[in-house]
Amino acid sequence: MNGISPKMVFPKFYAVPIFLAICLKSGADAFFEVNSVKYLYFFLLLFGVFFMRTGRGFSGEKSKVSSDLQSMLWVFVIVYFSFLTLLMIFQNGSPQLIFKIVSPFIFFGLLVAAADESLPLAIAIGAALNIVANAALMPFDYGWVYWGSVHTFKGFYMFKTDLSFSLSTSLLVFAAWNRYKLNPIYIVLTLLVVVQVVLANSRLNYLTLAIVLVFVALKNGAKPSTLLMYGGFMAILGGLAFFLYDSSRILTFDTSNMGSFSQGRDRVIGLLLKYGLANYGPGELLFGRGLYADILIFMENISDGTPHGAHNEYLYLLITQGLTGTALNIIGWVLVYRISRSAGPRQWASGLTFTAFLLYLTQGLTATVSPYALKTWPIATILLLIFASQDTKGEVASGKSRKNGFNGAPVN
């Protein structure tokens, strides 16, 4: 009409199932034994971005600051990808590993370019489904595995640590989307997460889950006495899960034997420090020894037939990528953070970014996280939620009570 061709517009609901699949966060690594899954998820991601953008006629607006930062993110992706590729050529590595390390920044960059009001809902539903789908496997053998002599719950993941971290971040995602209201859905999801984390017995992730629960409590104006009551309730629930499961077969916190307590991590880290970083020259300190350096150093000095990685994110980055790669990794997350905040202030999100990165940094104490999408994508997803959501009337800032909070105080 009037000589102007109408835009081709698709209904936005086409994108929702696609983003649900992406935002389940089990993604490329929960089923890592099926190679095609890794590429299927990114195909769905690209397909979803097309429909999200087309669904609104490519008319989405963004500030100049956000646009510039997003351009900087793509420049960063090219630089980081090139750096890792050179490491692979001159040292060691693999295209798949490079792609996985850079994938959270690609994931965030694609989705933030197409984000609209339908994305937060898709993220929240994906988080809830992740919790419920894993819980549904508790009665079945598929969801369990023997960790040594201990029968532990793993859900549809390969490792109990991956399950527990995914559940903790999924609960945080849903709580943030739900604006931290203690409604029946949140309470049910919390109970399911607590039971699963206890049965998985991933000990460090007791801490990650506690961080999420304390954060939600604080957003509801909880006082220290209330937090103690909250913690006591969760302790009783966890103890009940242990009792029903068979508490005599749990992994213990016996600190008298550090090797047993750390499950061999102290030996691996000590060896990598002694035979790795301590022997690095200036070039190796600057650029590392390649993406498989931690495994190669271990195998060169220990002949027990079993290769082991660094089991520590900070040591892994320094050994494999040196100071340069470590700095690039940090720059990537800083860019992602700044983009998430470029859309304007989010009162409800006060403290959320700090909590998300605290979970990520805590997980990195006993595990290598950057090469695994199931560890990096959840953090990118939380920052996407901040970017794509809007403040609405009645939402409160951190530290203020809400009507449905612990103490029933009205919103200020």
Task: Name the poorly predicted regions.
Answer: 1-11, 23-29, 255-262, 396-412
Please provide the ordered H/E string of secondary-structure elements. HHHHHHEEHHHHHHHHHHH
Q: Give the amount of beta strand, in percent.
A: under 5%
Summarize the amount of helix as a percent range.
55-70%
How large, in whole angstroms, is the Cα Rg? 22 Å
Give the number of DSSP strands. Answer: 2
> Separation of termini?
51 Å
Mean pLDDT: 79
Question: What shape does the CA trace take?
Answer: globular
Query: What class do helices, strands and sheet pairing give?
Result: mainly alpha
What is the number of helices? 17
Neighbour order of strands in the largest sheet: 1-2
Can you summarize the main beta sheet? Answer: 2 strands, antiparallel
Summarize the topology.
Elements lengths: L14 H9 L3 H4 L4 H21 L8 H27 L4 H20 L3 H18 L8 E4 L2 E4 L6 H18 L6 H17 L3 H16 L4 H22 L12 H4 L3 H11 L6 H6 L5 H9 L11 H30 L9 H12 L9 H16 L24
Structural summary, described in words:
There is one protein chain. By secondary structure, the chain is mainly alpha-helical. Helices cover 63% and strands 2% of the residues. It has 17 helices and two strands. A two-stranded antiparallel ribbon has the order 1-2. A hairpin with a 2-residue loop joins strand 1 and strand 2. Helix 7 packs antiparallel against helix 16 and helix 7 runs parallel beside helix 17. It starts with 14 loop residues before the first helix and ends in a 24-residue tail after the last helix. The N terminus and C terminus are likely disordered.
